[in-house]
Amino acid sequence: MPIAVGTASWTDPTLIASKRFYPPGCNSAEARLRFYATQFPLVEVDSSYYAMSSASNSLLWVERTPDHFTFNIKAFRLFTGHQTDRTKLPTDIQAALPVSDKKNLY
After folding, report:
1. At 73, phi and psi to the nearest 5?
2. What pLDDT score does 28 carry?
3. Distance from C-alpha of 49 to C-alpha of 73, rounded to nearest angstrom
4. Exposure class string for 63-90: b at 16+ Cβ within 10 A, else e
5. DSSP code string of the chain
6. Number of neighbours of residue 25 by Cβ within 10 angstroms
7. Which of 35, 65, 76, 92 could be disulfide-bonded to 69 (CB atoms 3.0-4.6 Å)?
8. Which residue ranges make up each domain of the chain?
9. Which residue pairs, CB below 8 angstroms and at least 24 apart, start in 53-61?
10. Tens of pLDDT along 52-74?
């Protein structure tokens, strides 16, 4: 089985601030993802741990990368047993939850 190497995000603040990876003028998340995908075959989507990614965003990521590119999606924190603020859930799921004075779900 081949080993693929990538980073934890194409929008990592440290990576962007270093000004050593992205070429000049590569300032948007779209431009960064397109460039990143020319350098690495995969990336971890770290933001999915904090909030569920929308289907429309996910489709944009796929459209901006080559067919062979892999997104390693980090599991949403509620799925890993970590406390989750109700407001981090999609609005339709929030509406389906029973009323509670508790801020976090487990």
Report:
1. -85, 120
2. 95
3. 8
4. ebbeeebebeebebbbeeeeebeeebbe
5. ------BS-SS-HHHHHH-SSSPTT--SHHHHHHHHHHH-SEEEE-GGGTSPPPHHHHHHHHHTS-TT-EEEEPPPGGGGT--EEGGGS-HHHHHHSPP-S-SEE-
6. 7
7. 65
8. 1-74, 80-106
9. 60/30, 61/33
10. 888 999 999 999 999 999 999 99
Measured between its terminal Cα atoms, the distance across the chain in Å is 36
pTM given for the model: 0.81
In this structure, the strands spanning 42-45 and 70-73 are parallel
Distance CA 77, CA 82 (A): 5
Q: How far is CA 56 from CA 8, 17, 53, 60, 105, in A?
A: 21, 28, 8, 6, 26
- Contact at 8 Å (CB) between 12 and 18? no
